[in-house]
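Methods — Computational structure assignment.
A single polypeptide chain was analysed. Its primary sequence is given first, followed by the predicted tertiary structure written as C-alpha cells.
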Amino acid sequence: MGGTQRKLTTIFCADVQDYTRLMGVDEEGTLAMLKHYRDAMSRLIAAHGGRVINTWGDGVIAEFPSVVECVRAAMDVQNELAGQNAARPVDGRMLFRIGINLGDVIVDGDDIYGDGVNIAARLQASATGGGIVISNTVYDQVRNKVAVSFDFLGPLAIKNIADAVPSYAVRIGEPLPPADATPGMRAKPGVDAGSHRQVNSAAPLHKLWALIAPMFWLAALAAAVLVAINILSWQGVFWSAWPVLGVAVLSAVAWVAMQTRYDRLLAGLGVIGLAIAGINILTWHGIFWSVWPMLGIGIVAALYKIIPR
C-alpha cells in the first residue's frame, strides 16, 4: 500500500445546485460568488475542527474527526449562505447541497478515497438546494447531540454498493426557493417531497412559547394564590396540591413538545410516570400502587430504545 492507510472519519461533501445554469448566465460573476462562498465555507469548516481536502469545479470535500462538529459546521454553512443569498435575486442565488457520511476511507497523502466518500457524494446529490442529507451512521451519532430534527428519507441506492444506505434530511430552516422552481414542479422520483422539505424548527417553537408562556405564568400565579388561600384557611386538608400538580404537568408537557435535546417519546413517558407518582402521593393510603404503571412505562421505554426503527 506504500504511503496509504485506512481510517474512520466523517466526510463532508458539497456542491452547487444548478451550477451549469449559473455559469451560462454569468461566468465571471458566478466564479466570483463561488470563491466568496467557498471562503466562508472553509472558514466555518476550520472553526469546527474540519479540514478541506479537495475543491473541484463547484464541489468541496472536507473531513472532520467529530461527527457532531461536522453536522454543526454544515448547519452553520447553510445558515450563513442563506443569509447572503437573501440579498440576491431568486435566479441569482447560489445554493449548496451538502451530504455527510461517517465511514472507513483510504488515506493517500492529503486525499481520501473509498466507499465512505462515494456515499457522502451520493447523499449530497440527493439533497435539496440549501439542504443537508446525512447517512444513518451519522444520524446514530448526532440524533441526541444536535438540537435539530430529522426527516427520514428512506434507503438510498449507491452505485457499486450492495446495501442501500438509510438517509435523513436535517431540518435547518425553510430553504430558499430554487431558481428553476416553477408552479407544478414535480419531486424527484423515489423522494417524497413532503418528507424531504425542510422546516424551520426553531422560530415556530419560539413563537409558540411566546404565545403560551403568559398562560403558564397566569396558571402558576393562580396555583400560588390557591396555596395561600389553602394555608390561610387551613382545615387539615391540603387541597391546593391538585392545581399545583396540574400546572406542573402542563408545564412539563409543553417543555417536552418544544425541546429538541431529548427524544420526545421518552421524555413524555417520563412526565407521565412522574404525574402518576404525584397522584399516588396526593391520594396516599399506605399503598405505593403507582409502582406498577411506572414499571410498565419503564418497559415500554426500554423496548422503544432496544427495538430497531
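Note: Residues 202-232 form the longest helix (31 residues).
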